[in-house]
Specification:
Number of domains: 1
Low-confidence stretches: none
Distance between the termini: 28 Å
Order of helices and strands: HHHHEE
Helix content: 40-55%
Structural class: mainly alpha
Mean pLDDT: 82
Shape: elongated
Number of strands: 2
Strand order of the largest sheet: 1-2
Length: 101
Amino acid sequence: MNFKEATDQLFAGVSHTELAASLGVSIASIRQGRLSSSAKAHRAAPANWKDGVERLAREQIRRCEHLLAAINGPRAIEPNNEVRTAKPVRVSPRGRVLATE
């Protein structure tokens, strides 16, 4: 795996289209549900949104595990499902790296 392939996989996110398909709703429903509650076009989130988000999050985890294994070999994933990193990191609730220790 080269740098471009690895970073293409790393940057792959979840689109409105994928979430809508996972929930069985329209893309517009996703966009409207994400609007501020004070927005005129705001609509309630789909009833089963947590199940769909969980399903997609688990798929992202699997993709990241495969990426780590491709870069570092299968031992990059510890038996307890913790990911071994070169340095400890702090991560925001949105999944962004805040700082390395």
